[in-house]
Amino acid sequence: GDLVSIENLGDASRVITNQGLDVVLNNSNDVDEENRGLMLVNPAFGRVDFEWADFQRVDFAPIPEGFLPGRSAWADLGTLRGSVTVDGGNRSGEIVFDVDEQRSVDILDGVLGNSRAYVPFHRITSIERGAGQSTVTLHDGTTWTLSRQRDVSDSNSGIVVKSGDQREYFRWDTVSSIRFEAP
Prior knowledge:
The chain is mainly beta.
């Protein structure tokens, strides 16, 4: 609570405190390359776990009242719904993503650079499948290219679209894009 910022200098860190102290610290895994990284949580996109090598600087600020969602924000927001563009056209209805995520509160995970992102589906507008990766667009317009995790790579098990009593399964390599309805 007394820190204003931490800047990664590789084998040390520059630390500035609320009292104006500006020091370079080293020889501790809190402030050097032995650090296991940082976690950034934001209601707009979920969570990103940064590797120390990807981390450059953090500036701390008080968290406004109500900024972080409480337990009630994670109440059931319903099933995933939207449209899937596949080789044979478009299909709309309830979506089961990677044959296991079907609720708006479920999490899509992927690697962003060397960091790992965890994004609740209710924050995602669309997913565009690419070669071994996917472009994920969030409701605020932010676009991330995620890779190296099952959800966003060629290891994805596919998509099921439910419309009424009908269910259709599509292999991931036949999916071009998915657009999600807001929950």
